[in-house]
Amino acid sequence: MSRKVRLGIVGFGAQGSAYAKFIAEGMVPSVELVAVADTDPSKKERIAELHPEVQYFDDYLTLLESGAVEAVVTTVPHYLHPEMGIQALERGVHVLLEKPAGVYTKQVAALNAYAAARPELTFAIMFNQRNNPLYRRLKEIVDAGEIGTIRRANWIITTWWRPQGYYNQSEWRATWGGEGGGVLVNQAPHQLDLWQWICGVPKSVYAKAAYGFRRDIAVEDEVTAVVDYGDGATGVFVTATHDITGTDRFEILGDAGKIVVEDSKTAVVTRLNRPEREISEGMGMEDVRRMFMGEFDPSELYTRETIEFASAWGEQHSGVLENFAANILDGTPLLAPGSDGIQGVRLANAIHLSSWKGHEVPLDFDEDEFLALLNERIAAEGTFPQRA
């Protein structure tokens, strides 16, 4: 029998229990679940019922030091991700963080620096959407230059509808001190990651965010952000938690083609036969007349391909878990290296900072200024400790 990675799960809530279920059902063949840590004593009986062969720990440090596990996945509140990642790596334990990597870049940068000093250990992040075959194929198309240089990249992702009861279920949710933000840090990190993974990291952002706009919460429930990639290329990101019917539409316009994704399921890829500027400069008025009158053959200018895959949500998560184990066992390249997690955190921080200050900010913003403004909001809540 081939060797399996001995995994521990830190946090047995909705996500942690789902990962345990995937492993128990054989969806992650290279992983053996051997331990779970959770501070809620009521979880012990539930874990024993569902996974009787798994050890229970009431403290994650005890789990890390037990020798029972060689790797962990953390499914805990966002502020704890960097701390737990460092604690695991310090003890020689491979770590897979749930998204986001943290709440603010200073804490994530510290984690990345520590992980870089321990290259013998695997450090990954649960960006399961990178395991969506549709987005993997689109990244290949963009990286290969099939639609040319990107000129614009827009994403409307408002399929994150949440009722007020969702926010009322716990005191930490949708707070600055407990969760660190709203839709940008809870629901939309996957799209913030994919946007940059496929289209590149922007240079600056100007954002309008609404705080407690349609929900009784302190943090953002609607965001519109305009980014600048440089050289005239721009992008727009729109997200919200109050659109009950929701839209998921991602467009990438290049100077030699275009990609339009609907509902993260179907993509239409248009490839121009020549770069758009060449088409424009070579077109006479008769050609324009034919186009306006619908008398031209579209194949003279472009081809279109529709791409669609069947991709179950659980298989995306289990695939990242299996890839994490494969990297530990034989060095298979990671789908989502843990160090990539800082990109989405930085963009979310920049969006918040721009909305707080009311003007455009660079992606290399002043991290101390951001943290000071975040702490002002945490202090105003009067419930949670400020952050360092």
UniProtKB/TrEMBL annotation:
Domain annotation GFO/IDH/MocA-like oxidoreductase: ranges: 135-259
Chain coiled-coil ranges: none
InterPro entries, per the entry: Gfo/Idh/MocA-like_OxRdtase_N, Gfo/Idh/MocA_Oxidoreductase, GFO_IDH_MocA-like_dom, NAD(P)-bd_dom_sf
Entry keywords, A to Z: NAD
Residues of the Gfo/Idh/MocA-like oxidoreductase N-terminal domain: 6-116
Pfam families recorded: GFO_IDH_MocA (PF01408), GFO_IDH_MocA_C3 (PF22725)
Keyword Ribonucleoprotein in record: no
Protein name (database record): Gfo/Idh/MocA family oxidoreductase
Source species of the chain: Sinomonas halotolerans
